[in-house]
Amino acid sequence: MSDVLTITLNNNVQIPQLGFGVFQVAPQDAERVVSTALETGYRSIDTAAAYQNEEGVGRAVASCGLAREDVFVTTKLWNSDHGYDQALRAFDASAGRLGLDTVDLYLIHWPVPTADRYVETWKALEKLAADGRVRAIGVSNFTVEHLRRLFAETGTVPAVNQVELHPHFQQTELRAEHTEHGIATEAWSPLGQGAALSDATITRLAKRHGVTPAQVVLRWHLQVGNIVIPKSVTPARIQENFDVVTFDLSAEDLTAIADLETGRRIGPDPATFDMR
Ligand code: NAD
């Protein structure tokens, strides 16, 4: 069995700290790729309605031979489904495609502030949690400003905020806000979509520890307390990304990585992103 630690969310639900992401995994590949990840030992899968591969994820979970409670499944509400009633319907559709009665974590994928409906959407997620359809609710791509609006206008603090986070974009201010309010930080594009792996500091640390650059970056995420969901469709890399518990980065190594911040995102800016 795996040595992956779990993080206890603010409603006492536990999530594996290292999971597997399936953004840009083609629908016809999802079942096979997720099955490989589950065989490797991953126990948390991150999908979304927008990834169009929830059916394949669901089939892999159903056929893996593990008890349902041993696999943590996250999915997300897409930008065209904001609003109270739409959100409830979107959840039913996702749960149907996954073939699950209960989803472990349901996230608002983007705040879409130009539509100004994320507070209503959040209230629908609160209902899903109260009804036992989801074990935990959270958000994704929320900035400090969006989070503070939820704190002011609703009754539940998100369990998770899943945001772009890698050595070149470390989200220091947002992470401090999360810590203050008991929100777990989940890192998307944790490897910088591969770009962090050719960084000179990362490759130097990889040589020093006798591991790969991806392992250094993932180990860094785990040591700073992030939940992390690397993606690969290549079995050897799926395994490599899971083998990150056998070494420790020193305080000096962590400082060297802290210095890699560039302030530049790879992905869209949540303040303006409104693709539907
Ligand atoms: P990532 O940082 O995990 O990088 C994935 C890419 O890095 C792979 O396609 C591959 O090219 C490369 N790679 C992976 N393992 C490697 C290894 N061991 N050695 C060398 N190269 C390797 O990027 P991602 O897929 O964008 O992010 C991970 C997950 O985060 C996604 O699958 C998805 O679940 C989630 N995500 C969420 C959002 C959001 O808006 N909430 C946005 C993007 C991604």
Whole-number total of structural domains: 1
Rg, alpha carbons: 18 Å
The CATH class, by name, is Alpha Beta
CATH superfamily: NADP-dependent oxidoreductase domain
Query: Based on CA inertia axes, which overall geometry fits?
Result: globular
What's the total count of β strands?
Answer: 10
What portion of the residues fall into strands of 2 or more residues?
15-25%
Strand order of the largest sheet: 3-4-5-6-7-8-9-10
The sequence of SSEs as H and E is EEEHEHEHEHEHEHEHHEHH
Q: Report the span from N to C terminus.
A: 40 Å
Q: What is the fold named in CATH at topology level?
A: TIM Barrel
Largest sheet features? 8 strands, parallel
State the CATH architecture: Alpha-Beta Barrel
Question: Helix amount, in percent?
Answer: 25-40%
State the oligomer: single chain
Which parts are unreliable, with pLDDT below 50 for 5 consecutive residues or more? none
